[in-house]
Amino acid sequence: MRICVYPGSFDPITNGHLDIIERASGLFDKLIVGVLINTSKSPLFTAEERIHFIKKSCTHLDNIEVDSFEGLLIDFMKQKNATTIIKGLRAVSDFEYEFQMALMNRKLNPKIETIFMMTNSEYSYLSSSLVKEVARFGGCIKGLIPSVVEKEIFKKYNRR
Ligand code: PNS
After folding, report:
1. Which residue, by CA, sits nearest to atom 12 of ligand 1?
2. Interval 102-122: pLDDT, tens
3. What spacing in Å lies between the alpha carbon of 26 and ligand 1's midpoint?
4. Which domains does the chain have, with CATH numbers?
5. H or E segment at 30?
6. What are phi and psi of 113, to 5 degrees?
């Protein structure tokens, strides 16, 4: 069974993430979305909320598991019997850091392969941080995030 992990902060999931999940789910028997609990960052949404949004956005896919992890990605992968990491690449600016992480993960476990998927061009400018910034100041984020997230993000910022 080919098990792949799509890791990230997903704070919150965007339509760019969802596009990668949908396309990658067709390439593997199982796709596990790994939500990082990073104690040195203070996310807008708790890990439970982030997981809930991802699960709600993926109900049309039947081979998706969503779970959180702390510590090293390769340890989470081992625990899940996963052999492939999938990452989305938006622009050349993503490449350098992603390249570093892919090589570090390979150094830590040479059996693990990282595969990059090009983001759909309509989402190439999209990031969770930008969506949060626009929402914080009351801007329109329709079409950028799954609808389940839209209401909740404005609630967090006390805006309608
Ligand atoms: O959505 P993000 O914040 O860009 O995702 C980054 C993530 C979660 C993929 C990356 O920070 C990660 O894998 N963190 C786990 C810690 C780890 O394994 N570090 C060493 C490998 S570079």
Report:
1. 73
2. 999 999 999 999 999 999 999
3. 23
4. 3-124 (3.40.50.620)
5. strand 30-36
6. -110, 140
